[in-house]
Each structure stands twice: as structure tokens, then as C-alpha cells.
Amino acid sequence: MISISGLDYLKSSSELQADSIPGGVLYLIIEDDTFTWRKASKSFDLDIFKVGENLSEKSIAKRAMKEKKTLVENIPRSIYGVRLKTIVEPLVNDKGECVGAFSIIFPLIHPIMSSFKDFAPVLAEMFSEGAVIYATDLQKLILKQASSSFDVDFLKPGKLVSESPITKKVIESKKEAVQEINDPKIYESKLLITIEPIFSSENKDEVIGTLGIAIPKKVAQNLINMSENMETGLSGISAAIEQLAASASQIHTNEQKLNQEISEVSSLSEQIIELSYFIKKIADETKMLGLNAAIESARAGEAGKGFGVVSQQIRKLSDQSKETVPKIKSLTDKIKEKADNSSKMSENSMFSSQEQASATEEVTASIEELTALSTELNKIAHKL
């Protein structure tokens, strides 16, 4: 307790100390039930407890006066809009009677909140894609620092905690939470928000607010888009190559059949040549028979004239047949030559189509590997 006789000294020392206390302070003197004096520092003041006003019956100062002892109490933000710590010391007269109180009110500012303006600008610029650092009390967002390259409008001072389910969750659970936002109305790419609870310096189990960091995920979003486009494109290419492989296989089958047909034509040419040799042989023998018939006709004289005419026609037909054989052979040789050339071309085409089919299978396998890779890339991008 403080003697009322030292009240002037108390006022003088309070005025000297008011602006030297970190965070600020408000000094109040109550005599009887009335505020008779107040001194606030330049950095902190409250538009309450004015000189001439009466003391509330429920106030801590009233209780300190009744109990004649020093009382200390923390006042929640919900009452005056700021967390406060109040120390009340009773004032007594020479008889030891309580005649008033000396009250000291400090704003309770968490070290994170008090140093926010110092560390937040540096921290925000440390992220490659930029960041927004912000802090809330139990009611609203009170501090915000955006980097030079990134900012979002939905995080702004005054935003109510009740409008942010994740912030409410952090306050209620007293645990960190992470949220991913993918809403073009809020931001053009994905956002990752991490929120940590801020605990009271006096009571390590009491949450007094939150500290949040919002960062864009443009790189991850671009990576996702690229991998999805790559996967779609590869699927189309793979389908086209499969169709090409099927066509190449069909061409190869057709080439095999064509080659077989050409071989059969070549075989027929050989048979025609053999047949022409047989015709030549018959022609030679027919000519010999005609010659023998002519000789016998000559021997027979007048009686064999008719037979001689027949033998002459036989020799003539034999000569014509014999002349036809070289022509047949010439044509057959040309057919065989063409068939051989076609066979070689068919074999080359068949070999090429076979190589094409093999190459297509290799490309298809490579496309499948790339597709699998793009899928894994997509998964990694979603984890970023």
C-alpha cells in the first residue's frame, strides 16, 4: 500500500517514467470512488478512465480498496479492444484507512506482435514466389505484410476470424494447420496457407492469436498444367502410333501375300518356258514327219501328189510353230524378269515394313515410359 502523503511524488515520478516504458503505460489515481489524475505515455493511451468519472463497483481497483491489498489482473481484448495488464495498489491515510488507489495499466503485446514490423518485411521477401505474412488476435486480422511480388486482397486488416474456418480451427485446437486454396476468384494459381497459434507469454496454454503465411504456388501450378498437357499429348501420339503400328503390320502381311503371288507368277513363267520347249520339240518332229511324207509322196509319183500337199502344209505349220516358240520364250523371259524385279522390290518393301513395325513398337514403348514419367511429374507437382 502507498501513503496518500506521497501522492505528489508518485505523480512526478510517473510523469517522468511514462514515455520510457516499452509498449507504453497508463497511470491512474483514484480518490474515494473518483478518478482524479491520469498520465498516459505517447505510445499508448485508452479513451477510458477520464478524470472526474466514478469508479465501477466491479472494477479491480474497487476490490483492491476493499481488500486493502495489491491486485494484478489480465484484461482480455474483448473488453477494451486490447489485452491489458492492470496493477492496483491501495492508497491509505495516516490512520491506515484506504482512501483511494494507484492503478498502472500496461498493454499486453506479444513479442511476435511487437516485432512484426521488423521481421515480417524481411521474411516476406525470402520466398522465391513472394509471400504474405499476417497476424490475428482472437477476433480479427490485425497485422499484414505483403512482399513486393505477391499480395492477395482477401487477407486484409479487419477481416474477422469468424470468416476463416481454418483460423478458427487453429485457435480452438491450439495446433498448426495448413490449407491449400485453388480458387481463381481468390488468386490465379494455387495458394498455400500455413497458420501457427500464438500463445500468451504469461500462460503457455492460452492462445491469444495466430501467425499466418500465405505463399503462391505458381511454379507448381504451371508444372501441373505442363504435365497434364504432356500426358494428354502423349496419349494422343500413343494412339496414333498404335494405329500406325497396326497399319504397318497389315502392310507387312499384304507384302508377304504379294511376294507369294509373284513367286507363283515366276513359277508359271518357268512352266510356260518348259511348255514352249515341248512345242518346239513337237514342231521339229512334225517337220521331220512332213519331210518323210514328202519323200514318200515323191516315190509314189502321180498317186502321191495329194499326200505331198498335205506334207507341205504339215511342214509349214511346223515352221510357224517353231517360229512362235522364240516369241513365247522372249515374252516369258520378260515376264520372269519383271516378276523377279517385283519379287526383289516386294522383299525390300516387306523388310522395310517389318523394320517400320519394329521401330513403331520401340517408339510406342518410349511413349509409354514418357506417359508414366508425366504422371509421376504430375504427382510431384501436386505435392509441392
From TrEMBL:
Bias (Low complexity): 342-353
Cited InterPro entries: MCPsignal_dom
Compositional bias per record (Polar residues), positions renumbered to this chain: 354-363
Keyword NADP attached: no
Protein name per the record: Methyl-accepting chemotaxis protein
Region Disordered, annotated ranges: 335-363
SUPFAM superfamilies: Methyl-accepting chemotaxis protein (MCP) signaling domain
Record lineage: Bacteria, Bacillati, Bacillota, Clostridia, Eubacteriales
Keyword Nucleus: no
Pfam families: MCPsignal (PF00015)
Domain named Methyl-accepting transducer: residues: 217-384
The organism of origin for this protein: Clostridium neuense
Keywords carried by this UniProt record: Transducer
Domain of life: Bacteria
